[in-house]
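Minutes, structural biology subgroup

Action item carried over from last meeting: produce the structure token record for Gfo/Idh/MocA family oxidoreductase (Sphingomonas citri). EB confirmed the sequence was re-checked against the source entry. Recorded below for completeness.
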Amino acid sequence: MTISEGISRRTWLAGAAATAMAGALPGVAQAARRRKAGDKINIAVIGAGGMGAANASRLTGENIVAACDVDFDHVAKSLLGRDGNTNPERVALRAAYDKAERFSDYRKLFDKRKDIEAVLIATPDHHHAVAAKMAMERGLHVYVQKPLTYTVAESRMLAELARKNPKLVTQMGNQGHSGDDGRRVVELLRGGAIGNVREVHAWTNRPIWPQGIARPDPVAKPASLDWDLWLGPASVDWGYNPDYAHFNWRGWTPFGTGALGDMGAHLLDFPVWALEPGLPTRVETRHSRWASRDQPAQPGSWPLAGLTFFEFGNAKGGPIKLTWYDGGLMPPTPHDLPAEVTMTPDGGVLYIGDQGMLMHETYGEKPVVFGAGAAERAAAVPRSLPRIEGGLQGHERNWLAAIRGETQASCPFAYATTLNETMLLGMVALRAGRPITYDGNAARITDAADANTLLTRDYRSGWTI
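Output recorded by EB:
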């Protein structure tokens, strides 16, 4: 049986192609070598359904030699279109998955498959750092979905691993970083199209999952799901409920990092990239109420909506204030915004400079400038950043091209970890329930010692890092 035929969790094993691949390399120590143009890369996919399937569908020109997931019935559904038939865009992925060796536990995958060269990680947030660390310590190139990690300490750990292993090609899965429009945004802001920027507003329509609610009662899990492996490093066991898996985990504190962790990697990317503010020096979150059943002893879901105020006291061009809005909240309309301009509730970023304003949509798309002379200044800003082949849709392929030494990775951990840490500090401030002052050099909250425990987390036995 094949995965596309709804195979059981026990029967999908390696095909002939996977067997032929075994032992192709003498050992993982050589996995970090740059491949030559035209060489196929041996890839493992961890978190093969959902977003992992979307990412992996762009890697089918390589050798997907292993696929890891805790529920292969869910993976099979990820290959289908809305009509219940195979998605035409996933035919090649279905064939690749049918040939790949299957694992439910990525720890066993790493132990067994010594031919892997690169790993795509698209699990829930609480697994990201654990899987990425294991891969990088084995000399494997990694692509990790956003947010890069669940905690600030994990982000620092991956930054250090990347620094110590410069031959590893790393990429965070925020595809807007590869988009043509987003790169133009960076050029316009750096080129002075709206002058000096001291104020930024970013908003999203997330959450689009259950949030701001008390924990539901546990129910029987699907037979296809290994719930213990799904929990992995999470130090809680609430019992299974469909409000946690497979998509809704983002709203629950042990598993996801809420709307900011989800969409901040897109929306905060461009101000962090263009304005080079460094890490925030002060962060405060105001939010709707926690679900009373779960706070304060054991927070359950993140609050439904929030405002997070970031202050960047060490920004390259001078102090910057950035406000984040989620749960459908939006910034007030600036007085000088043209009456015909609509701030889309789906999400966007507004930059207010001393010579105008710039606004774009979630992935950096459709940038527009406003203000006297802003359009003329924008037209005069030259193109200075390289464009990524395929743009938004080329983010995964860019990672592969970088592994082959043909280009540079679009969003490597050297940059992504700063963006990631900024986002996560918003969640730390939310949990702290008070403003926090942050020393980025020391990775320490200086005015609330107890809040420093929120920079890390506890891990279940067998999943420590």
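Discussion: Residues 3-175 form a domain with the Rossmann fold fold (CATH 3.40.50.720).
Next step: EB to file the record with the rest of the batch.
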